[in-house]
Amino acid sequence: MSATISRILRYTLNERILHWVAGLTYVYQLLTGLAFYSPHLFWIAVLLGGGPTSRFWHPWAGLLFTVALFWMLEVWRNDMRITDADRAWAKAMPHYIRNEDEDLPPIDRFNYGQKYFFWVMLWAGIIMLISGLALWFPERIPWNLRYLRYLAILLHVSAALISIGAFIIHVYMGTAMVRGGFTSIIRGEVTPAWAKMHHRLWYNRIMGAAPTRR
Amino acid sequence: MSNGPLEIKAISGHAGPVPGRDTSRDYDVCKLVDVTTCIGCKACEVACLEWNGYPFRETVFDNTYQTMPDLAWNYYNLIRFNEHTASDGTFSWLMRKDQCMHCADPGCLRACPADGAIVQYANGIVDFQQENCIGCQYCVTGCPFNIPKFNPETKKVHKCTLCSDRVGVGLEPACIKACPTGCLHFGSKDDMKDLAGRRAQQLREHTAHTNAGVYDPPGVGGTHVIYVLHDISNPEAYGGLPANPRVPWTVKLWKGPLKWLGNLAMFGGLLGVTLHYLRFGPKQVKEDHAEGKS
């Protein structure tokens, strides 16, 4: 690759589709889930076609979300592994929060926060899938194992709340905070300067240049 | 009370005490099931089906005299049958009319997320409003008595209504009306507790059932269906009647503290990112103009 190219492919079409299948199903889960979570938010279910409709599609969208999650795991398994570079970066995270990016050690394709977001969503998704199956078919759980029903409601809402926390930060950073991030997950491309600033090791790797400096 | 049952004060030409005189006419209602006089005839099951307009369904034989193993969405009322051998070796058939207990602290209602799908009336009846039910079955999880049943076709949950449509116009529930032995009684909670207490005392004093007592579990704030049992120390023997039913603590946690914690976390998160943006703003990339157009 020559140095004259103006854009770098950061996300393939497959990765973008995957992201948005997961993202849109998550948003649907979030909205309908919040409707069942609080009476003050039940109006969301009404807007989305009514309570029974929301309840009917919520688990199916959840299945699609988990499929997308596992497919992502397949695609990003290596990219999401937490490395020593990430640990060094994590130590310097206060600089990242204060937008002092020049003080950060270089990292590869994803940063520590992105990787953690991925693993949090994956595990929350797995917990919500398993507990969700119990909520979907509570009568299939025999009465003498009813503590599983009780456990499931607690796990489902706890995992959901943790994922919501992660989701708020993810959306904020992807849209408002890290300029260029949102375009990259839609059109797939970033500028070389963006790649150098946020993911120096990845930039060096894909540009074929060996990392000469730390 | 405009359309409640009229209280009789005096009857003309009547010898002896006036029936119903001085009985409490409190608004809260109660069913009393005296299991010691139940013969397991299942007239109440039939009356329940008839009144609620459900078809007679296939029975399931499981080597007992029980109609089927469990309640169903269109079968609100089931005589639970158990062959019981007591610790002293005495053998007995235990028959208990199983249905919604109409708890004063209903776990189903606590768990339900749908606006107006479960209603608790001032008279104690807990009733499901199927037109508002979204079919989530949280009530199935919230109930400590394993009562609500889901109709997978309509995706609505059903259970005993305590014949709210009959009680509302001053009639007694259909099951009460059908009982041939008088083991079922219906009236105010105070009266039924009084009657049940006297019956239990009679059993203790005049029969071998020295452990007889009244089942009105305080863990769910008392119920609007109460039992007289031969042996109050072993309710589990009566087809799994829980000894100390409570709304599951996870349901209480989920609908209580966890909700507030969650709200706090979600609002805190939104506030946090807003403050971060106001304080630090976005990360801008200084474009290297030699390299890109951006």
Briefly characterize the structure.
By secondary structure, chain A is mostly helical. Chain A is built from ten helices and two strands, in the order E-H-H-H-H-H-H-H-H-E-H-H.
Q: How is the topology of this model organized?
A:
The complex is a heterodimer of chains A (214) and B (294).
Chain A: E1 8-9, H1 13-37, H2 42-47, H3 51-76, H4 84-91, H5 93-97, H6 112-136, H7 147-177, H8 181-187, E2 189-190, H9 192-198, H10 200-206
Antiparallel strand pairs in A: 1-2
Helix pairs in contact in A: 1-3, 3-6, 6-7, 9-10
Chain B: E1 29-34, H1 43-52, E2 78-85, E3 91-98, H2 107-111, E4 118-120, E5 126-128, H3 138-142, E6 149-151, E7 156-158, H4 164-167, H5 174-178, E8 184-188, H6 189-206, E9 213-215, E10 225-229, H7 249-255, H8 257-280
3D structure, described in words:
The complex is a heterodimer of chains A (214) and B (294). The mean pLDDT of chain A is 92. Chain A has a two-stranded antiparallel sheet. Chain A has a single domain (8-206), classed as Transmembrane di-heme cytochromes, Chain C (Fumarate Reductase Cytochrome B subunit), CATH 1.20.950.20. With 214 residues, chain A is mainly α. Chain A has helices at residues 13-37, 42-47, 51-76, 84-91, 93-97, 112-136, 147-177, 181-187, 192-198, 200-206, and strands spanning 8-9, 189-190. Chain B is of the alpha+beta class and 294 residues long. Chain B has a single domain, classed as Alpha-Beta Plaits (2-Layer Sandwich), CATH 3.30.70. Chain B has 8 helices and 10 strands. In chain B, a hairpin with a 4-residue loop joins strand 6 (149-151) and strand 7. The interface between A and B is large, with 51 and 49 residues.
